[in-house]
């Protein structure tokens, strides 16, 4: 068992995906975890899966983590601050400024509250989806404010580091603007793009490739949760979507008459702008380093992908990233292998020598 920075006990309120994962991660480090949830069924499942024990009257937690839907987060935080006057309280809601302002307006004890937000999740929710390693290597924002001392807030830092996440400090306003750009607006764009598929003919949908899957992957998200998130962070999301609408209008105008003077240049500049933007997305190890991609055809039979990865290792090339794409009806997959550029030529030659088909 790895030694923990926290001394516990920790109370987790709400045992959905995040709450259950926090409990499992802390229990793996030997921390006492007290679980509470409005749903007795969710609570029983989380307890059975080892995320902690059911909270009892008389518990005295040192730290409380509120993991409930955004529209009730401020209410629950206020209640926890009142019920446990010696505890520090944080929450994991994906919007921070509105909650902080709400608590301040209520006169809540902000000297014991500090909001946070782990940027981690899965396609499925609920306690059954909880994982002890959900937060490992993921950013976890602490929304700093002047009302709490560094000494008191340090227990939240310990929680984040114990769970293997990377601590990021921002103000609540900075956080909300940042997630509007990298999470909330992309959700809207993905959902609207996926909606175009609703009435599309099967002949068109069957042509779908990895590009469409990439753009629409998050469109499968929970509508009820996103109504809450977008409503709570409407202003910065609106700012981004309005700018996006202006970009789209310019593109539409150029595409409406591609033979007009300057139209092709405008289209090219928009595409190049996308190239520039995507290069800023952090890659492996959180750096803006770009890799070379090799596309290798892998037969759809047991053990072939494992053999490919093993042979890449035998050659002495480090695999930076991997994505596997399948085409409908095809008996093979396309493995997109990302490696450092200087290894591309030698790896291509070696894989071809070993009988692998390089598609690109």
UniProtKB/TrEMBL annotation:
It catalyses: prephenate + NAD(+) = 3-(4-hydroxyphenyl)pyruvate + CO2 + NADH. Pfam families: PDH_C (PF20463), PDH_N (PF02153). Residues 8-285 form the Prephenate/arogenate dehydrogenase domain. Its EC number is 1.3.1.12. GO terms for biological process: tyrosine biosynthetic process. It is an enzyme of class 1 (oxidoreductase). Keywords: Amino-acid biosynthesis, Aromatic amino acid biosynthesis, NAD, Oxidoreductase, Tyrosine biosynthesis. InterPro entries: 6-PGluconate_DH-like_C_sf, ACT-like_dom_sf, ACT_dom, NAD(P)-bd_dom_sf, PDH_C, PDH_N, Preph/Arog_dehydrog, Prephen_DH. Residues 293-360 form the ACT domain. Pathway: Amino-acid biosynthesis; L-tyrosine biosynthesis; (4-hydroxyphenyl)pyruvate from prephenate (NAD(+) route): step 1/1. This is Prephenate dehydrogenase. It comes from Agromyces atrinae.
